[in-house]
Amino acid sequence: MTHFPIQKFKDIRTPFYYYDTDLLTATLAAVREAAPEKEFCVHYAIKANTNPKILKLIADKGLGADCVSEGEIRAALDAGFAPEKIAFAGVGKSDVEIEFAIESGIGCFNVESMPELELIDEIATTKDKVVDIAIRVNPNIEAHTHHYITTGLKENKFGIALEMLDDAIAYCRRQPRLNLIGLHFHIGSQITTNEPFALLCERINEITDRYSAQGIEFSSINVGGGLGIDYINPDANPIPDFASYFDAFRKKLNRRPGQTVHFELGRSIVAQCGSLITRVLYVKDGLEKKFVIVDAGMTDLIRPALYQAHHHIQNLTSEAAETDTYDVVGPICESSDCFGTDETLPLTVRGDIFALRSAGAYGEIMASQYNCRRLPGSIIS
Ligand SMILES: *Cc1c(COP(=O)(O)O)cnc(C)c1O
Fold first, then answer.
1. Distances from the Cα of 202 to the Cαs of 138, 139, 193, 248, in angstroms?
2. What is the pLDDT of residue 1?
3. Is the pLDDT reported for residue 148 higher than 70?
4. Are 298 and 336 in contact (CB under 8 A)?
């Protein structure tokens, strides 16, 4: 359970992110314990949080990195991730990004289209390099999550459709610069049951069986990320159930001898260790509602406005036994700038300090300067 040094917070300009590194360390230990086998290679999906101190802690534990831009590859390298453990994914890799990734000696390109394969081949030929390729397959699986964070359905922009996979594989096998090592999948995010992962395994087994029959084997299968966390009770479930998650793959995935299974976990590693700390500016009476106006807004934490996500709101200051019902809103000039409606909270007054919990993933990194606001800082425990 995260302990907040509230006395220290009082003198610091809000809003800012607070990271509990003890929890992050315990989470990383839980990942290691749940997936000890050397055939399981866990990457951290850098996009969830690129705070340099957080990245360094994760890199020090020997995880690989999943990157989606040149900037993320640079951040990963700066933090000490081994280049050969970096995978480069994304539907829109630019020419300079591909050149940079090849020069950096990254481990693998997760390729999402035919024209991208052609461009990588062209650049690799110019540089006289051979590059390792995994083809991202769109498995057409419903992840039962918010539609903005589901990625493995036919209509999504990600990956190559199953029907077009033969052509992509044949193309790689014809090009001496492209070394096809595996297949890559990622079906969505904040997935809270193992059922979609089990379905994914079945789909992967069908695909690898089909290619095995043609004499085509893959040394690497990347199953992506997506394991969800408990946004409602962060203190009851600070660490996701990694044991049952990895077990699902151990049981369902028909891993070939010598094959490595790659995982790309983002949210499940960093979400619970971070909170957005904010101060109450005003408690405002409306005609029908009471509003708590805090100094953090959607510019600091956009998930509620973008995905209708909810972060548990905790008043760190008030010890009042009495409660009231409030809408908790930010200062930005958008109606979607709202962290909670009809929240039951201890009686709240101006100056109280709130923690918006479980904000370590897709929080600080998505902050913007809309309304010419200053970016939230961060404090690491
Ligand atoms: C975003 C992303 C991840 C990480 O997803 P989480 O839900 O944060 O675990 C992994 N792989 C790919 C390809 C992604 O786009």
1. 14, 10, 16, 11
2. 76
3. no
4. yes
Ligand 1 atom closest to the CA of 265, numbered from 1: 9
Sign of CA pseudo-dihedral 37, 38, 41, 44:
positive
Alpha-carbon distance of 1 to 21, in angstroms, equals 12
For residue 104, the one-letter residue type is S
Residues with C-beta less than 6 Å from any ligand 1 atom: 45, 47-48, 66, 89, 186, 189, 224-227, 264-268, 361
Best probe residue, ligand 1, of 186, 227, 358, 366 (max atoms within 8 Å of C-beta): 186
Burial 234-249, CB ≥16 within 10 A → b, else e: beeebbbbbeebbebb
Indicate whether this model's pTM tops 0.85: yes
Q: What is the separation, in whole angstroms, between the first and last Cα of the chain?
A: 13
Taking each helix axis from N to C end, the angle separating 52-60 and 21-34, rounded to the nearest 10 degrees, works out to: 30
- Return all residues near 29 (Cβ < 8 A) that are at least 6 apart: none
CB 85 within 8 A of CB 106: no
